[in-house]
Amino acid sequence: MPHLGIIIGSTRPGRAGLPVGRWFHRKALEHGHFDVRWIDLAEINLPFLDEPHHPRLRRYVHQHTKDWSALIDAMDAFVFVMPEYNHGISAVLKNAIDFLHQEWQYKPVGFVSYGGVSAGTRAAAAAKQVVTNLKMMPMAETVAIPYVQQFLDDEGNFRPSDVLEQAAVAMLDELARWEEALRPLREAARQAWLERQG
After folding, report:
1. pTM for the complete prediction?
2. CA-CA 20 to 30 A from 106: which of 13, 19, 134, 154?
3. Distance from CA of residue 172 to its chain's centroid?
């Protein structure tokens, strides 16, 4: 089964990303196409980018970067569960992306965004520019959650609407299609990298 990494793109205390991410994680498991991996940036705890060499060289000197590289390299597709901060992507998610380069290439990515009236869509739009530069394929299908607090119950669990449930399935279906379509490119890039290493 292809590997899907669900990246929780906020680390702030009380973040809505945790219950939203847990819900989407369940949806991905129910979908059945992917081996699903939970990737919480609060647990990964990367420092602010501290590698001396450009990420495209993959000449990492720190163990935390080597571990992050191995984790991301093993994934075939991603979903970013992301808030919108000041009309943009969270610093912690942007930092995590910027640590690497080749490990992201030729992998589809979907966005579960949340916020207020905009539902995090401006952050998702900003993220699409970033991931496209890394040769990732952003999905047109998204899950955009407006006024996220209205979907949280008294215990902090996420209670989605039928529209959000349907949007999640549609995005997972599209991720599955693109993961398969991009697989030859990922395999060719991986083989080329191995050959360069001798």
Report:
1. 0.96
2. 19
3. 13
For residues 110 and 79, the answer to whether their CB atoms sit within 8 Å is yes
Instruction: Decide if 78 contacts 110 (C-beta within 8 A).
Output: yes
For residues 89 and 123, the answer to whether their CB atoms sit within 8 Å is yes
Burial of 122 (0-12, 13-18, 19+ CB in 10 A): middle
Q: Give the relative orientation of helices 121-133 and 91-98 as an angle to the nearest 10 degrees.
A: 10
CATH at residue 101:
3.40.50.360
Are the C-beta atoms of 82 and 111 separated by less than 8 Å?
yes
Q: What is the pLDDT of residues 70-80, one digit of tens each?
A: 999 999 999 99
Q: What is the CA radius of gyration of the chain?
A: 16
- Domain count across the chain: 1
Strands of 48-179 (E only): list them.
77-83, 108-114, 137-138, 143-145
Asked whether the predicted pLDDT for residue 108 surpasses 90, the reply is: yes
Q: What is the pLDDT of residues 30-64, one digit of tens each?
A: 999 999 999 999 999 999 999 999 999 999 999 99
Instruction: State how far the alpha carbon of 85 is from the alpha carbons of 63, 80, 181, in Å.
Output: 29, 15, 33
